[in-house]
Amino acid sequence: MAKEVQGLRICEGIVKPEWIDYNHHMNVAYYVLAFDLAIDALWARIGITPEYIRDTRGSTFAVECHVTYQRELCEDDPYYVTMDLLAYDAKRIHQFQRMYHAEEHYLAATAEWMSLHVDLNSRKVTQWPAATLDELAAIAAEQSAAIYPDLAGSRMRVREPIYAIQQED
Questions:
Q1: How far apart are alpha carbons 76 and 43 in whole angstroms?
Q2: Is the CA virtual torsion 141, 89, 150, 114 positive or negative?
Q3: Which homologous superfamily is 8-142 in?
């Protein structure tokens, strides 16, 4: 039985034949692409559109991403992506996405992103426009009952390694 779907639904799609690898499932790179397309849908909602980018020379850069693969998606599988707005400030957004099989509703993958608003002329971080901050506040209000995802901020590790480089404390 699938767990309850979590997050605000942001986009949907179908696994394309060219996204399938030699293991006969969706290749890892295309999960990132699908999550990135969901970010584009979120950006459109908060006003970071191609027109905004052209007219203001403001855009976003992803600076960190962590993807987990939970269960396979295969050719022609329908999917949808949800997001939780984990945090934002005047220049940054931290979000967590989940990709679900659209018919069976199982969790297929997750992605956690940190993105920055940038001035494309100076290539430096700059503040979000006021309208974007208003839209982010509206999203935060929409998800007021959200619980911080267990998989957010997860660390990669081998639980009982035969060999591991020692980390400094």
A1: 26
A2: positive
A3: Hotdog Thioesterase (3.10.129.10)
Rounded CA-CA distance 124/117 in Å is 9
Q: What is the 3-state secondary structure (H, E, C) of the chain?
A: CCCCCCCEEEEEEECCHHHECCCCCECHHHHHHHHHHHHHHHHHHHCCCHHHHHHHCEEEEEEEEEEEECCCCCCCCEEEEEEEEEEECCCEEEEEEEEEECCCCCEEEEEEEEEEEEECCCCEECCCCHHHHHHHHHHHHHCCCCCCCCCCCCCCCCCCCCCCCCCCC
Backbone angles phi, psi at 120, to 5 degrees: -70, -20
Structure tokens, 53: 């980018």
Domain ranges of the chain: 8-142
Burial 73-97 (b: 16+ CB within 10 A, else e): beeebebbbbbbbbebeeeebbbbb
pLDDT (tens digit per residue) in 16-68: 999 999 999 999 999 999 999 999 999 999 999 999 999 999 999 999 999 99
pTM of the model: 0.91
**Contact present, 77 and 89 (Cβ < 8 Å):** no
Task: Give dist(CA 74, CA 79) in Å, integer.
Answer: 10
